[in-house]
Structure formats: C-alpha cells, structure tokens
Design a protein that fits this description.
Chain A: This is Skp1-related protein. The complex is a heterodimer of chains A (179) and B (222). With 179 residues, chain A is mostly helical. Chain A contains eight helices and three strands, in the order E-E-H-H-E-H-H-H-H-H-H. The longest helix of chain A has 14 residues. Chain B is elongated. Classes of the chains: A mainly alpha (179), B alpha/beta (222).
C-alpha cells in the first residue's frame, strides 16, 4: 500500500466478542480501524473485503483505501457503523419508506452543516449503508417541513431555473482545463 | 439545529445529489412539502412528478345534508396526509380527475356513490380517458347498479370490487361478461342477493349475503 498513515489513527471501541478489525484509509489519508460487524453495514466495503480475501490474520496489514470519502465523513460513518453494528437486520421495503423514530444519538451525530450533510449522503451512497442513508434522508426531509419554495431554495441550495440556465451557459462558455 | 445553520447559505448541493438519493429524501416529505419543492425548479417538478403517490383512499361521497355537494376525501399513504372537503359536484369531480390524472398515482381504494357516477362516466367518455387503475373499487350507498354504472366500470381496472345496492339480473349478466369482472380477484356484495354462484368461481375471495344457499350451490362453491 503506497499511502503512509502519517495522521493519528482513529481508535474505535474494542470488540471483545469478535476481535477482527479492518483498517480503512480515507481520501485525505486518515486511517480508521473498524470492526467486522460494523464494516458489514457497508455493502461496498464488505464486498471489497470479501473480494480482497482479507482475513482475521491479514486484515490489519492491508488497509483499504477509500478515495471517494474524506476523513471527516469517514469518522462519522465509522462511529455510526460501530454504534449500530448489532442492530437487528431490517426487512427490505418495496413500495413505501420505512417508518422509524430517529434516535437522539443519531440526530446529534447528524446535526451538522447542510453542505456537510449532503457530502455525508454522497459518501453513504457510495459506501451503500442503507440505515445511515435512511437517517440522513430523514434529517434532510425534516428540514423541508412547512417551508415555502423560497425557503427550500435556500436550505437545499436550489437555484431558480433562470440561475440554473445562467450557470449552465457560463459553464459552457468558459474554456476547459486545456483551453 | 442544522436547518438553522444551513438557512443562511446557498450551495449547489441539491443539484449534485444523485437521483436515487433525492428519491429517498422526497419520500420523507409530506405531500404539502413535496408540492412546495415542486415549485422550486423544473428539475424538482420532474423529480416530484416521477415519484409514485400512494393513495390509500379516494372517495366521492354524497352528503345527505348537502345535496349536490359531495365530500371529496383523499388519504395519502406515507407520509400520511388527509384532505377532505365538501364541494359543489362539478368542482369535486374536477378535483377527482386531477387526482386520478396525476402521473404515477396508485390508488388502493376508490369509493364512489352511485349518485356521482353518471357525471363521472360522461366526463370519462368525453375526455376519452384512459382506464383508471385501482386496487379496490367500492360502489356505495343505497342505489341500483344500473347500466350507467356498468358502462362506468368499463373505464376502471381493479382487483377487488365491493358492490352495495341491488343489481338487476340483466345488468349482472352484462357485468359478468366484462373484462373487468373476468380479471377481478375478489368480490364483496353485502346486500342480500340470489345471484348465480357460477359467476363467482374464478375469484380468490368472495363475500356474498344470501337468504338461502342450496346444497348444490354449496358444493359448487366448495
């Protein structure tokens, strides 16, 4: 692995029942350790681990680089996964969204700047963590409650159609990286 | 809280959110909030319109105390939203068509009084409307299942049907010949009747109310 873990390693709670730990390196070279039960919440990471053939013996010697997720988001994700690693598996849903009460701990975890929350959603989408995705989307959905279209534009950062067209025009008029 | 923090800044974050994620977020919005978001931009109008709307019950019920002013009731499932209003018949029917004409609308239960059906049928016929797909249709209140209802039913596609009121024998014979009857999986006729049981044998569920059941009919049903 070419990435040097120069930044402090973020420690997570030791798992007594299952001592298998994995190392994950974020896009900005932060290194995280995560337990096997926790990492299973991310379909992407677990598929990667399975495909790489990582075992209890070689897991810590082979850090997994995740280039699409920065350290800040990864820290939140690791905290979330460790917190929910022993949760009961929820049934798949088809037509309707799941009804649930957002736990206070998770609400606190997700009480972050809107832009950070959207970045976290992108990371969650990439890592395919269904429960965190539901929670983030619920928090973002709650922001829209009883808001006018104008307020929604501000909260979600939605440009008007005119602004959007202007942005598109300026993007197409501006020279590319080589021009 | 985060919404207070984010209220003061504009970043193009929503535009960069993948469609599948937007779809999940939209499902957590109430119907009113979705309508407000729909007004934000063309893209959001498209996103909201693409989202299925699950209506648990849509009903047009005649109100005895307000003749010619039926109650339009809509119950949207998850997130729960109710709308109930008493309107002049023409307005109620107009609203009804707006709802059934929404893109991606899925209606579980449609409840109609016989009273409104002639007008609904005329408008369906005039507008050359496509079939209205519902899970269950319930014809309600005292009245007669007549030819007009029979013609109206041809504009519906349903799995289950609840028919209150009397059905004239000749109308029933015409009804069992319709594609809708053949495709139905369940029928409930709560009024006492002596309709031929042979017409119900293709159904998965059947509730009939009869004064008497002959041994032959019982054996046929079994």
């Amino acid at each position: 692995m070419s990435v040097e873990p120069e930044v402090p390693i973020v420690q997570v709670e030791e798992v007594r029942e299952n001592p298998v730990l994995y190392k994950i390196i974020s896009s900005d070279n932060h290194v995280f350790t995560i337990s096997e039960h926790a990492v299973k919440l991310s379909k992407t990471l677990w598929d990667l681990i399975t495909n790489l053939g990582l075992t209890a013996e070689n897991a810590l010697d082979n850090p997994i680089p995740v280039e699409n997720v920065n350290g800040k988001n990864m820290e939140t994700i690791v905290q979330f996964c460790e917190r929910h690693k022993y949760d009961e598996e929820e049934p798949e849903y088809t037509n309707y969204i799941r009804e649930f009460v957002l736990p206070e701990w998770d609400r606190q975890l997700l009480s972050i700047d809107n832009e950070e929350l959207f970045q976290l959603i992108l990371a969650t989408n990439y890592l395919d963590i269904q429960k965190l995705m539901d929670y983030c989307c619920r928090v973002i959905g709650d922001m829209a409650k009883d808001k006018t279209p104008e307020e929604l534009r501000i909260i979600y950062g939605i440009p008007t159609d005119a602004e959007d067209d202007a942005l598109e025009r300026s993007a197409s008029d501006s020279p590319g990286p080589s021009g | 809280m985060s919404d207070q923090v984010g209220f003061n800044k504009i970043q193009p974050i929503w535009q960069e959110t993948p469609d599948n994620v937007k779809g999940i977020i939209l499902q957590y919005l109430s119907y009113t909030d979705r309508c407000n978001l729909r007004r934000c931009s063309k893209n959001d109008k498209f996103s909201v319109d693409r989202l299925p709307i699950y209506i648990k019950e849509l009903s047009l019920k005649d109100m005895n105390e307000t003749p010619y002013r039926p109650r339009l009731f809509v119950h949207i499932r998850r997130p729960n939203h109710y709308h109930s209003s008493i309107q002049p018949l023409q307005c109620a029917v107009k609203s009804f068509f707006k709802i059934v004409g929404l893109p991606n609308v899925k209606i579980e239960l449609l409840v109609l009084d016989y009273y409104e059906i002639p007008l609904l049928h005329d408008l369906l016929h005039m507008r050359k409307w496509r079939q209205i797909a519902v899970e269950t249709v319930h014809f309600k209140k005292h009245g007669v299942f007549d030819e007009c209802v029979l013609n109206f039913i041809k504009h519906l596609s349903f799995r289950k049907c609840i028919i209150e009121g009397d059905i004239l024998p000749n109308i029933f014979n015409a009804l069992i010949g319709t594609e809708q009857w053949r495709n139905a999986q369940g029928v409930h006729i709560p009024h006492i009747n002596q309709l031929e049981v042979d017409s119900f044998l293709h159904l998965n569920s059947l509730r009939l109310r009869r004064e008497r059941l002959t041994a032959d009919d019982g054996m046929t049903l079994i």
